[in-house]
Specification:
By secondary structure, the chain is mostly beta strands. The chain has strands at 3-7, 10-12, 18-25, 33-39, 46-51, 58-60, 68-73, 78-83, 92-99, 107-108, 112-116. The chain is globular and about 40 Å long.
């Protein structure tokens, strides 16, 4: 059974930092593509960052470039999102997801709330 569990969300002042974690289980972790997404109240879900299984291919949404860093530790089956210089507009529910090779996001976590004031 595939499971993705996010953690690390919380409340932070503008300009601050947070690190989100997403622990994966139930499949061969290092072969997948992992992504972080977010959804703010009243808005559509948007992609934040994506990292391939080997960690060499990384993509960021334009508004996150230079402020957010995605990484993964395949030994711990965990993907991270380091967020710095946080802004109020970064307030959202952050989700991780995995693409097991079919080109679509197959499984999602339950989300972790980030609030920037």
């Amino acid at each position: 059974q595939v499971q993705l569990v996010e953690s690390g969300g919380g409340s932070v002042q503008a300009g601050g930092s947070l690190r989100l974690s997403c622990a994966a289980s139930g499949y061969t972790y290092s072969s997948d593509c992992m992504g972080w997404f977010r959804q703010a109240p009243g808005k559509e879900r948007e992609g934040v960052a994506t990292i391939a299984g080997g960690g060499r291919l990384i993509l960021y949404a334009d508004s996150m470039k230079g402020r957010f860093t995605i990484s993964r530790d395949n030994a711990r089956n965990t993907v991270y999102l380091q967020m710095s210089s946080l802004k109020s507009e970064d307030t959202a529910l952050y989700y991780c997801a995995t693409d097991l090779g079919g080109g679509s996001w197959d499984y999602w976590g339950q989300g972790t709330q980030v609030t920037v004031s």
